Amino acid sequence: MRVLGVDPGLTRCGLGVVDGRPGRAGMVALGVIRTPSDAEPGERLVYLESQLEHWIERFRPERVAIERVFADVNVASVMTTAHASAIAILVATKAGLPIGFHTPTEVKAAVTGSGRAGKAQVGAMVQRILGLDDPPRPADAADALALAVCHAWRGAAADRLQGLAEQTGRRLAAQR
Amino acid sequence: MRVLGVDPGLTRCGLGVVDGRPGRAGMVALGVIRTPSDAEPGERLVYLESQLEHWIERFRPERVAIERVFADVNVASVMTTAHASAIAILVATKAGLPIGFHTPTEVKAAVTGSGRAGKAQVGAMVQRILGLDDPPRPADAADALALAVCHAWRGAAADRLQGLAEQTGRRLAAQR
To answer: Does residue B160 register a pLDDT over 80?
Structure first.
């Protein structure tokens, strides 16, 4: 399953594309979309939209994973983060891609086994999982990769459960 | 000056179009875009985008006024409000329209003279300013109308100041 991970932000929006199946994952692409903080808010959103469209067109992910933003994390930056998140949701939906939302805690737990792991630990685990020579940089892109890995693994598990449930349902229906 | 006011929201997004010049204003249109809260977040944003595009195409405003959302007002709804706001900013920018942001306090002060005016007082003043038979309903649409009136008046005043400053600048330059 190919997943585009998006760590939403307006000044810096981290992107990571991963091909993954439970327990394994390979990196496809890594990047950061930057917009200048003194630009018009609208121009920043339009640019972010065009870049996200470009990434989806170029790397053809099957799913998009977006970090779930909480309102109480950082009042100063939360609004621009929410704006960037909305653009990512819009672009993914218009491309017909299913979206998964994951909290930072879920992502950390998925890649390190602990929801309280630090940045460095997440980076080191992402490096090991993806078989990279160095920890992925910059940090926003590393977070986006971790998000994509988390979604590929959890998504696949969820799909398998869904498949099992449907199979069981069909079997029960056949027995009736 | 024709202004589209947007009171951003995902469950209910208030819209009001006003033709205004300082001290005077006439209503052109009034409405609310609703999306079901149990729909996919992406589908809600795509629908909101299409409706906003439709309003701009139909009523051809020269400017868009959007309520400035604060992160600390209501943690539960602030994220969806911020998402709706991002879509409004995106659509207006792509339509080439200048955007003005106004806080609720600014809007109340512009239409009632007091930044602490209540809903009913704002509604009554909007009714009087626009010469309506009844207070505008629903409340979201009334807020959007007040926002558009505020922007038409303040925007015109700002333009006039800008014009005066440029005139003065040219006069000073000519005297040198």
So the answer is: no
A130 vs A127: CA distance, rounded Å: 5
- If you average pLDDT over residues A35-42, what whole number do you get? 93
Of B45, B71, B99, the CB nearest to A93: B45
What does the alpha-carbon distance between residue B148 and residue B27 come to, in Å, rounded to a whole number?
Answer: 10
Tokens of B115: 């930044």
Cis ω for the linkage preceding B22 (within 30 of 0): no
**A158 pLDDT higher than 70:** no
Domains of chain A: 2-175 (3.30.420.10)
CB burial readout B31-64, b (16+ within 10 A) else e: bbbbbeeeeebbebbbbbbebbeebbeeeebebb
Backbone angles phi, psi at A109, to 5 degrees: -65, -40
Q: Which of residues 78-97 of A touch B (CB under 8 A)?
A: 78-79, 82-87, 89-90, 92-94
pTM for the whole structure:
0.87
